[in-house]
Amino acid sequence: MQAKQFDEVVVEVKHVSKHYKIAGREDKVKALNDIHLAGDSELLPIRRGEFVMLRGPSGGGKTSLLNLLGTIDRATEGTIELFSNPINVDSTDEYLAKLRLEKIGFVFQTFNLLATMSAYENVELPMIILGKLNEKERKKRAIELLTLVGLQDRLDHLPSELSGGEQQRVTIARALSNAPEILLLDEPTGDLDTKNTVEVMDLLLDLNLKLKTTCIMVTHNPDIECYADRILYIADGVFEKQVFNIEQTRLDYDEYIAYLNSQAGH
């Protein structure tokens, strides 16, 4: 595999903290504490085409950080820069909504598909909301994306007629519908069995390599770290370390199953 070249910075996090106030408690809960991913730190900013995983214990701050990067939530202190534009208290809801619609794709552990809509309609919906493509262009793109994720024969199926792995593929196709520059993934394999986990990770790696989509993924599964360019470990709201993979590799399903079975015996 050819070594990836990273140039342009797409995400910088500058001394960001996130505190929550909980009813009935005096002290605030500190979800994130002085998180810094920037050119002037050893923890580098996230660059276009990079596949970054966020790992660490539950409650460590992974999802809080992902929500800030997706502008679903706002930092208590510090600044996040997306595509060199700062996101801060002055950023309007309209601006952030447009940013999410045009440049950020979301994939969650729970598939969040609309139950009354077919796979095709679920993928088409963000394009309708954005309003850039006409009906013919939307149809072509929705079919292309569902073909890309291997579901060209499932266009008219409702979510209830699809397996968990298939539903997650529809979710990924939907997240890609407006050609986002960043894909944010929160435990995308958390509800999947081993076979579907490997298939979905293989798919995400293909998308990352072919489309050059920047992927930032929260996971609790250490076995899939091999798919990332870089893993950032976060605990108690702070980064503990970063690890680089020399190259991204896939899990071999048969070998992985044999490994899991050998571990189960211990």
From TrEMBL:
Gene3D superfamilies: P-loop containing nucleotide triphosphate hydrolases. GO terms for cellular component: plasma membrane. Pfam families: ABC_tran. One of its GO terms (molecular function) is ATP binding. The keyword ATP-binding applies. One of its GO terms (biological process) is transmembrane transport. InterPro entries: AAA+_ATPase, ABC_transporter-like_ATP-bd, ABC_transporter-like_CS, ABC_transpr_LolD-like, MacB-like_ATP-bd, P-loop_NTPase. CDD domains: ABC_MJ0796_LolCDE_FtsE. Residues 11-261 form the ABC transporter domain. Keywords: ATP-binding, Nucleotide-binding, Transport. This is ABC transporter domain-containing protein. It comes from Dictyostelium purpureum.
